[in-house]
Amino acid sequence: MMQRWWKTSEIKFIKENYGSLGPKEIAKRLDRKIAGVYNMAKKIGASKKQTRKYREWTDGELTFLRKRYQQYHTPYLAEILDRTKMAVLEKANEIGLKKYA
To answer: Cα angle vertex 101, ends 71, 86, to 5°?
Structure first.
């Protein structure tokens, strides 16, 4: 199989979208292999943390978290809030919430 050279527009697309789309979706959109996208992202210094856009927490979500954090397991709260478990844990820590046994 012949190697396909990367176009400048493809590299730019990876750099701008790697954090929000990830390698699988980018590979699909660019008609590239996932490993190729991953390797190019690594080569150009694109990372998920670098480009990811975070959704702000609403007052309602914060109120819900404050009221329910002690009562429910983190995975359940993450599912209800449509957030990752890590996002819930980080926000709870940030606003001073703790789980007690």
So the answer is: 60
Question: Which uninterrupted H or E stretch holds 36?
Answer: helix 34-44
- In a shared domain, residues 46 and 76: no
One domain, residues 64 and 31: no
18, 20, 26, 29: CA torsion to nearest 10: -140
Residues 72 and 42 grouped into a single domain? no
Cβ-contact 20, 53 below 8 angstroms = yes
Number of domains in the chain: 2
> Which domain does 78 fall in, by range?
59-94
Is 100 inside any structural domain?
no
For 24-80, the pLDDT digits (tens) are 999 999 999 999 999 999 999 888 765 455 688 999 999 999 999 999 999 999 999
Map residue 69 onto helix, strand or coil: coil
Contact criterion met (CB below 8 Å) for 88 and 74: yes
